[in-house]
Amino acid sequence: MGLLIKDDEVERLARDLARSQHLDVTETIRLALEAYAAAHANIDLWTKLKPLRDELDRAGHTGRTADKAFYDQLST
């Protein structure tokens, strides 16, 4: 089974990392993918949405109420 990397920069990064760690490219890619998967495996939705929640907090509150008139205005 093979993997074709069509991006020269990605291939260069993989080879440079492999060389610096004294590993072959396959082992380097395997370790990198395992580390990435482990780092992102148990992140809950609340944590994933933190950047969006922070952006909404920075935007501030308008003080407006989302009542029937508000929604009616959206559909006109």
Helix-strand blueprint:
Blueprint: H1 8-21, H2 25-40, H3 45-48, H4 50-59, H5 68-74
Summarize the structure.
The protein has 76 residues and is mostly helical. It contains five helices and no strands.
Biggest beta-sheet profile: none
- Helix-strand topology string: HHHHH
Tell me the strand percentage band.
under 5%
Oligomer: single chain
Terminal CA distance reads: 56 Å
The helix content is 55-70%
Shape: elongated
Helix count, per DSSP? 5
Strand tally: 0
> What's the gyration radius in Å?
23 Å
Runs in which pLDDT lies below 50 for 5 or more consecutive residues are none
- Overall structural class, as computed from helix and strand content, comes to mainly alpha
Structurally, how many domains make up the residues? 1
Mean pLDDT, nearest integer? 91
